[in-house]
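DATA CLASS: polypeptide
GOAL: derive structure tokens

***
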Amino acid sequence: MLRTDYCGELGVGDVGREVVVSGWVDRRREHGDHLAFIDLRDRSGVVQCVVDERHDLRSEYVVRICGKVRPRPEGTVNPNLLTGEIEVGDCTVEVLSTAEPLPFPLHARTEVDENVRLRYRYVDLRTERLQHNLELRAKVNSAIRKAMEAQRFTEIETPMLVASTPEGARDFVVPARLHPGHFYALPQSPQIFKQLCMVGGIDRYYQIARCLRDEDLRADRQFEFMQLDVEASFVGQDEIMVFISEAVGAAVAAVTGTVPPEPIYMSWTEAMERYGSDKPDVRFGLELVELTGLFADTTAKVFQVECVKGINYTGGSKSLGRNAIDELTRKCQQWGAKGLAWFRVGDDGALEGALTKFMSVQEQAALGLAMDAKPGDLLLLIADSRRKARAILGLLRLELGRPPINEGGLNFVWVTDFPLFEAIDDQGHPVAAHHPFTMPHLDDVALLDGAAEELLAVRSQAYDLVLNGWELGSGSVRIHRMDIQRAVFRALGISDEEAEQRFGFLLDAFRYGAPPHAGFAFGIDRLVAILAGEENIREVIAFPKTQSGADPLSNSPTVISDRHLDELGLRIKFADSARRLEL
């Protein structure tokens, strides 16, 4: 028998038992009377084993140890260890596998280069941090499945080889050997297939789906990601939010032991006006203050713009010197601002700053009142278009106040009433904020035949779930009426022929009776990262890619042989000095 017990699960109740434990040698300490103390580690934790020093046991050797559980001698109890009251004595040892010195120590107090960690990811996985994170992830997945099944959802797997759409520039594509010159795409989401499930009468679908998107990587984004994908028939926005809140709440409870607080609900407009972001981090203040009306009749040219908004950085007048303010100004300019207007609040409550000479006494007093200014505060203003002022102050707010991801508790926010269109392109057509199957608010349907300004005012029945400033996921009520679908296509400048080419098999299905339906998808990687207190989702994925999209472990991506290319009917040539590939 290789094991009777896990190392970390032994305790005083096992004293006197003969046990067999197996694992890795975590540490070895010599003892003066020809004995050695071996800390043996497995997935459950560590237990101390007392062995004969003649055994040549080095770090990370894999061993099997047989012995008897006994109390530790008086004065040697380790209160920092779950097994700290006992040890395994009278040991016999069998070396199952030797180990060379590791490429980096598992107990390093300094940061290990990420490329080294990922090159030897199988070693990195032995660390307590990743063991904990992956166990946590498994709990989240299990809790989500139980919650969805309890709400009568059916788990269905959708295809991984799908058709690439004309707008699919971010698809990963796979050459089809049996159809030379043709390609599959790997799914960015199961969107169309889950809607087809609704047409097929499945009623409530869910899937923990692997999705792939060829986008630049960052802290909350990988090429491959896992999401909870949900679709349900004969429901609307409110029901979907209840389904998802239930699943997320179950996941949080499985990890923390407590149910999360009720989420906050706010419209997209409110989120943008108060926080300058459609994924508001509500764990701290520094909310945006509307100041446009205050400067309606100003003679200060800097404030003669569409929008003026500001934030009050409490105590900032004393904590930020001029160099720090200049650095904030440079950052705002990098984000697209013309500049950053700032005012210190003096001990007497008066505003101090270069721009005060262009402002009336009444404007200065009104500004201090509107921003609830106190002595020592620093008032930071952006004057620009409304869109730009909100966005820049939103970034500045995070720069000044955002706490680490694991501080401030779990703050869920449902953001609703997103615009159906986010901008107007060079051809005068609106750009869909989500996908073209998102249902507009019925009160706004008449605006679909209007001018550009009217189109930008159309609200959608779309909704996002945000946690601590991270967008967990998004969803919408889908269009199931062909008259509304045609109106949206017309507004987007999509002809009947193009619609048939891009979405033909979904539109065909809708002709045979499509129920009203709605759905949602959220990133499991992101949820797990926040629950684990990690700022980067790579730390909760077993085998992630680097920031550049490479995998140092498998040395991918790689070139493939000419023989393989011949089999696929492909030739590769370098088109220019930038070594852009042409197929």
Observations:
- Residues 161 and 186 are 5 Å apart (CA to CA).
